[in-house]
Write a structure and sequence with these properties.
Bound molecules: adenosine-5'-triphosphate, magnesium ion
Structural class: alpha/beta
Number of helices: 12
Helix content: 40-55%
Shape: globular
CATH architecture: 3-Layer(aba) Sandwich
Strand content: 15-25%
Order of helices and strands: EHEHHHEEHHEHEHEHEHHH
Oligomer: single chain
CATH superfamily: P-loop containing nucleotide triphosphate hydrolases
Length: 234
């Protein structure tokens, strides 16, 4: 993956299925591949990248979407890539205008080689716009039926708005047979199968993507395969 698209949006209608984890790890992997990369927290209602990546969120994308701050002010440097974080809370959410995301992503497209957009859960204008702005949409799902169903619905919505689905990232896989079920139910190629791995939440507790904090962990190896690059520690 990579090279044929600049803006990747990681999304699914369902919550808690690995969207932010995948976005953060993609950011770290593209960054480590010498591509100027930014990860945008477009989960406007419940932004979580600041906790995944232990970075500050003041000012944030919310301030930019409220028309109060320029993009430059809100960008935060992380290790090897930049982050455009969001601010949790009702006050920040109430002030945003999602229509402003288009020019924001347009600016980032000009500045960065790769823009990774972390989408929020649900299907609404707020989650469809990030799909429309993407060159490639990546679906995130766990192997359970409800999650795969939500990914399938998300893929249909993406198709309806002419967004291009690159594939799905299946997280918390415990058994390869689960992937056959995903293939049967979801009309999108499996881009990565990431095993359930405690190294993922442990890395998040350290404020780092697992590909950085524990590059040899099984989940990290699966993510590195997604980026077409093997960990140097292998
Ligand atoms: N491969 C994995 N192994 C174990 N735990 C994982 C794995 N991938 C993600 N998790 C955990 O699952 C939880 C949900 O992941 P994440 O926050 O990435 O999902 P999300 O889809 O972004 O959620 P939300 O919809 O709330 O934004 C997190 O606690 C994360 O640590
Ligand atoms: Mg998330």
């Amino acid at each position: 993956m990579g090279g044929d698209g600049r803006v990747y949006t990681v999304t699914s209608a369902k919550g808690g299925v690995g969207k932010s984890t995948t976005a953060a790890n993609l950011g770290a992997m593209f960054g480590a591949s010498n591509r100027e990369t930014v990860v945008v927290d477009a989960d406007l209602a419940t932004p979580a990248l600041t906790s995944h990546l232990d970075c500050s969120s003041s000012p944030s994308l919310h301030d930019v979407l409220a028309g109060e701050t320029e993009v430059d002010e809100a960008l935060v440097e992380h290790v090897g890539f930049d982050v455009l974080p969001g601010t949790p809370g009702a006050a920040a959410f109430a002030g945003v205008d999602i229509a402003r995301l288009r020019p924001v992503v347009g600016t980032l497209r000009e500045r960065y080689d790769v823009v990774v957009v972390d989408g929020g859960p649900g299907l609404s204008h707020d989650t469809v716009v990030p799909m429309q702005l993407a060159d490639r949409v990546l679906l995130a799902t766990t192997p359970d039926e409800a999650s795969v169903e939500a990914a399938a619905t998300t893929a249909e919505v993406a198709e309806r708005v002419d967004a291009r689905v690159e594939g799905c990232v299946v997280v918390k896989v415990t058994d390869r047979d689960q992937l056959d079920d995903v293939r049967r139910r979801l009309d999108a190629p499996i881009a990565a199968a990431v095993p359930r791995d405690d190294a993922v939440p442990r890395s998040q507790d350290l404020g780092k993507p697992v590909v950085v904090a524990a590059p040899s962990a099984p989940a990290a190896k699966a993510y590195w395969a997604l980026a077409g690059r093997r960990p140097e520690t292998d």
